[in-house]
Amino acid sequence: RYPSRIALITSPEGDAVRDMIRILGARWPLAEVLILPVRVQGTEAAGEICAAIGWANRHQAADLIITGRGGGSMEDLWAFNEEPVARAIYASEIPVISAVGHEPDVTIADFVADVRASTPSNAAEWAAPDQNEILARLSHMESRLEQAMSRKLERAGKQLEQVSRCRMLQD
């Protein structure tokens, strides 16, 4: 089953959120994207991230949560190392993709999330299927079904022709 509602728990400004929205829209435009704006660094960040995860779960606001931010120094990413954030992600009934920083950046959130993405853009790719791949697969399946039905009709036609030549049926 593909997600129809994806919650982005991140800062509403910046390239990371724009990239995720662009990628999700291109890959799976059927998904509704909900942005739950939070601070992603500073002393208030951990509390806001926890509150957003809790809100999303209480209201069943999404089928999937992506939480994170673009790169930065370890101090900038520290909110995702806070114990309350790790506990909130771990306790989430809604699956969580951790998308903190860039490839070499690792936080505690990455270890408790259902999936760790190397970047926010990578999280968007994990979150949504590529509609073009699905359409190509459906087209291939349609073609195979048409071929199978043609063969079945051809066999049935030959059987009918053979039965119609049977002497018992001709009388």
> What is the CA–CA distance across the termini?
58 Å
Percent of residues in beta strands?
5-15%
Q: Summarize the main sheet.
A: 5 strands, parallel
Percent in helix:
40-55%
Low-confidence stretches: none
Overall outline: elongated
Mean pLDDT equals 94
- Number of continuous helical runs: 7
Using DSSP, what is the number of strands? Answer: 5
Q: Walk across the major sheet and give the strand order.
A: 2-1-3-4-5
Structural class label: alpha/beta
Written as H for each helix and E for each strand, in order along the chain, the element string is EHEHEHEHEHHH
Our Rg estimate from Cα atoms comes to: 25 Å
Quick summary:
The chain has helices at 15-27, 45-58, 83-91, 108-112, 120-127, 131-164, 167-170, and strands spanning 5-10, 32-37, 64-69, 96-100, 115-116. The chain is α/β, with parallel strands linked by helices and 171 residues long.
Write up what this structure looks like.
The protein is α/β, with parallel strands linked by helices and 171 residues long. The protein has a 5-stranded parallel β-sheet, sandwiched between helices. Helix 1 runs parallel beside helix 5 and helix 2 packs parallel to helix 3. It is elongated. The model has no long low-confidence stretch (mean pLDDT 94).
Keyword list:
alpha/beta, 7 helices, elongated, 5-stranded parallel beta sheet, single chain, 171 residues
Element layout with pairings:
Blueprint: E1 5-10, H1 15-27, E2 32-37, H2 45-58, E3 64-69, H3 83-91, E4 96-100, H4 108-112, E5 115-116, H5 120-127, H6 131-164, H7 167-170
Parallel strand pairs: 1-2, 1-3, 3-4, 4-5
